[in-house]
Amino acid sequence: MSLSIEQLARANVRALTPYQSARRLGGNGDVWLNANEYPLPVDFELTQQTLNRYPECQPKLVIERYADYAGLQPDQVLTCRGADEGIELLMRAFCEPGEDAVLFCPPTYGMYSVSAETIGVAYRIVQAREDWQLNLAEIEARLDGVKLLYLCSPNNPTGNLVNPADIRALLEMTRGKALVIADEAYIEFCPQASVAGWLGEYPHLVVLRTLSKAFALAGLRCGFVLANAPVIELLLKVIAPYPLATPVADIAAQALSESGLAEMRRHVETIKQNREQLVTALRQSRWVEAVFDSETNYLLVRFRASSFVFKSLWDQGIILRDQNKQPGLAGCLRISIGTRAECNRVIDALAALPVSDDLREQA
To answer: In the 8-state DSSP scheme, what is residue 184?
Structure first.
């Protein structure tokens, strides 16, 4: 019997809906506020002219500098192609397809489910409470067979921190049963909330980090897994032989230098200032029902007639991220914090939208 290419593919891949990244969704904008990137480019020059040689699997300088930055030892750090690869490496190392499961709490980052589906690992969902905190009782009731539990703090797309007491309760609940993975992609905007300092207390805690956000290096694709040495040793068995290209390692090391860290912290302060001004302006807009508190470089905003607002701004080249399909986020759009001028473009565009007697009729 002759099989088509699609029939030759694994059944779970045929059924898979890929993660709809900002770039896959497209748009022809000039104000890109849909991917939580830093709005301006950073200036680095390549210093390593060794492209004829394969790179180190774990570049020594990158590992040492990140360990120093995170307050850890080098054997507690693994670098990879963005935190996304870290999400998947953990599943590949710890989950048996068809037997084990992972668990996460929507509304949250979409790659947890996509990675599980790609690998063929079951996933369980325990929806967050109305305040977007963990439903610990429901999680405990569904832990049987779960190997990995992903939580995002600050959470994407809601922007809130997970209650640290609840994270501790979760770590106690899963001790000896499963790993708890704290996704800290946005932690530079609230460094006091990191749980990386808890690794000494919890052998089953893992922390994910990235250079994509506050470091303004989304195009570099460089992330980190922070964990105790036994976890790192297992991940090194399944990671690709050369996960970081030489130019990536070169720039990452520069970004983690003393001057690079100082520049990153300046980015954070700029974004926080722009965020506060945008919050104030949005709360005065007739189109806005709620602006939720954020510890990140984006805002979750509930709009009246959100579909109309989204399309109207899209048509003007202002690209936001629609979150309507996420559980509990009807009417919500996510807005990355751009430059002051980009934030003003959003406010001016909202002010110029035509208003009917009932704003909802515009949807």
So the answer is: -
Structure tokens at 262: 């100082």
Q: Do the domains 5-38+260-362 and 60-257 sit in the same CATH topology, yes or no?
A: no
Q: Which amino acid is at 212?
A: S
Output phi, psi for 123, to 5 deg.
-130, 150
Residues 6+ apart with CB under 8 A from 53: 246
Nearest to 238 by CA among 113, 87, 104: 87
Between CA 102 and CA 124 the distance in angstroms is 6
**What are the structural domain ranges in the chain?**
5-38+260-362, 60-257
Query: DSSP E strands: which ranges in 35-130?
Result: 77-80, 101-104, 122-125
Q: How far apart are the first and last CA of the chain?
A: 51
Q: Fill in the amino acid letter for 267.
A: H
Whether domain 60-257 has CATH 3.40.640.10:
yes
Neighbours of 51 (CB within 10 A): 11
Could you tell me the pTM of the whole model? Answer: 0.94
Show pLDDT as tens, one digit a residue, over the chain (363 residues).
Answer: 888 888 888 888 888 777 666 656 666 788 999 999 999 999 999 998 899 999 999 999 999 999 999 999 999 999 999 999 999 999 999 999 999 999 999 999 999 999 999 999 999 999 999 999 999 999 999 999 999 999 999 999 999 999 999 999 999 999 999 999 999 999 999 999 999 999 999 999 999 999 999 999 999 999 999 999 999 999 999 999 999 999 999 999 999 999 999 999 999 999 999 999 999 999 999 999 999 999 999 999 999 999 999 999 999 999 999 999 999 999 999 999 999 999 999 999 999 999 764 554 454
Are 87 and 150 in contact by the 8 Å Cβ rule? The answer is yes
Alpha-helical (H) ranges within 161-206 are 164-174
- Interacting residues of 48 by C-beta distance below 8 A, sequence separation 6+: 246, 247, 249, 250
Order of all β-strands in the sheet with 205-210 = 77-80, 223-227, 205-210, 179-183, 146-152, 101-104, 122-125
- Could you tell me the two tokens for 65? 């500098």
Question: Domain 5-38+260-362 adopts which CATH fold?
Answer: Aspartate Aminotransferase, domain 1 (3.90.1150)
Side-chain-facing half-sphere of 267: CA atoms under 13 Å: 28
